[in-house]
Specification:
heterodimer; A: 127 residues; 6-stranded antiparallel sheet; 3-stranded antiparallel sheet; B: 364 residues
Chain lengths: 127, 364
């Protein structure tokens, strides 16, 4: 069974979103996503400063099995990317909710957070 | 409802992630495909290959029948137990399947792919008309491939009564022991054994190997290992529309004796002449190495500047080399460089001779 932490928000394209104290969000891929992908071997991240739309493909995660696009769950600006993940992509399998975060964003509209799934709704979407 | 092998419960016990493979519920990995791959290259791993189809060929015309059915020539098999790799071709020279044939005592055992089982059996049966032979499928035999530098040692440890038999096996040779059949063959580029075992005994044997430290490995690792070893996968690297000459299987065609009229021979001879007359149009199978990030995948387009185009037939991330490798069908004139179209971009790749890895070592 996948691990779906209750304190995070989710989208059906299998990214998780964590709201930080300063109002920014941190984004990664879920345990379900990493298990479906299998061993992750490359990660490509967006450039810091990029303005993105919700559902825009902005990163790529490539496993032994397949390449998958990673989508911006919300509109906003990329303010940080996880270079350590690029150097050690296997972290996406080992620690998907911790060290393997992908990027951080400043949201264009904080209200957009209300459109995200909670853990129960995401668990239902993975059935 | 997919079929399950006699080891299905063992796969679940070991947390195998089960996928449908040619109508069988098989483990793709047990956690990490890369770790399973490395276990085989560095120590020993085992694969459940019970889904493969075993067909025994018996009867006074068995040799003559196989000499017609296969592009390679079973007359090359001098000693009992020796194995031969061959394509089984259609009349147009396309590959219906690739298989292994073992010479037994007065009969032959063939192992064909599971995904092609029905058409293979139908074809083999149809071609047997006029020959005094019997074809018997052996679904009651399970099969385990134990592969890696420590594989043979581990099997001898758990099966001491077979140690002497195993020590007597040359590479590409098998021998029976009661209902068991042990062969020094595999699909990984490492030394090891493929062992046919009565279904009722296979779970206990698997457990003994586990207890001896042999790592269970899934179909995912099997694919990356065979690709590193430069071994073809039916359906990817060749099929009924591809001849052995375009699939790196030229060495499996026994042209001599010239009077042996195997199925597909006339088409292959015509193709060989056409390739010689017009090499620009001919295709060959090569290895590709990607020197940048990313992973080559089957069906990606290959562009060879000034020469023409080709296609990636199998591509993956190589766990041993830690970059992407692929097999590709490209124009014969291709030398050392090409471009691969990946996710909308043309990316430079190096062209190398197959295989990539054998016995744990880089080969190019």
């Amino acid at each position: 069974m996948s691990n779906i932490p209750a304190e995070l928000k989710y989208v059906t394209s299998h990214e998780w979103i964590r709201l930080e104290a300063d109002g920014t969000v941190t984004i990664g891929i879920t345990d379900f996503a990493q298990a479906q992908l299998g061993d992750v071997v490359f990660v490509e991240l967006p450039e810091v400063g990029t303005e993105v739309e919700a559902e825009q493909d902005i990163a790529v995660v490539e496993s032994v099995k397949a390449a998958s696009d990673i989508y911006a769950p919300l509109a906003g600006k990329i303010i940080a990317v996880n270079d350590a993940l690029v150097d050690a992509p296997e972290m996406a399998n080992e620690d998907p909710y911790g060290n393997a975060w992908f990027f951080k964003m400043e949201l264009a509209n904080a209200d957009d957070l209300n459109n995200l799934l909670d853990a129960d709704a995401y668990a239902a979407a993975c059935e | 409802m997919a079929k399950q092998t006699a080891l299905y419960a063992k796969h679940l016990e070991a947390n195998g992630k089960i996928v449908d493979f040619g109508g069988w519920d098989m483990p793709i990995h047990y956690g990490s495909q890369i770790q399973e791959h490395k276990a085989v290259r560095e120590q020993a791993g085992m694969f459940d290959v019970s889904h493969m189809t075993i067909v025994d060929v018996r009867g006074p015309d068995a040799t003559a029948y196989l000499q017609k059915l296969l592009a390679n020539d079973v007359a090359k098999l001098k000693e009992s137990g020796k194995a031969l790799y061959s394509g089984m071709l259609n009349n147009e020279g396309g590959v219906i399947d690739d298989l292994i044939v073992y010479k037994m005592d007065g009969w032959y055992r063939t192992v064909v792919n599971c995904s092609t089982r029905e058409k293979d059996l139908e074809w083999m049966s149809r071609q047997s008309k006029g020959f005094e032979v019997s074809l018997t499928e052996r679904p009651e035999l399970a099969m385990v491939a134990v592969q890696g530098p420590q594989a043979i040692e581990r099997v001898k440890q758990v099966k001491p009564e077979a140690a002497e038999l195993i020590d007597g096996l040359n590479i590409f040779q098998g021998k029976g022991k009661g209902e068991w059949f042990l062969a020094r063959t595999g699909y990984t580029g490492e030394d090891g054994l493929e062992i046919m075992v009565p279904e009722a005994e296979v779970a206990a044997f698997w457990q003994q190997l586990l207890d001896a430290g042999v790592a269970p490995a899934g179909l995912g690792a099997r694919d990356t290992l065979r690709l590193e070893a430069g071994m073809n996968l039916y359906g990817n690297d060749m099929d009924e529309s591809i001849s052995p000459l375009q699939a790196g299987m030229g060495w499996t065609i026994a042209w001599e004796p010239a009077e042996r009229d195997f199925i597909g021979r006339a088409a292959l001879e015509a193709e060989k002449a056409a390739r010689a007359a017009n090499p620009q149009q001919a295709l060959k199978l090569v290895g590709l190495v990607l020197e940048t990030r990313g992973v080559m995948r089957s069906h990606q387009k290959v562009v060879v500047e000034g020469i023409g185009e080709g296609e990636v037939t199998s591509g993956t991330f190589s766990p041993s080399l830690e970059y992407s490798i692929a097999m590709a069908r490209v124009p014969v004139g291709t030398t050392d460089k090409c471009l691969v179209e990946m996710r909308g971009k043309l990316v430079p790749a190096r062209v190398v001779k197959l295989p990539f890895v054998r016995n744990g070592k880089q080969q190019f």
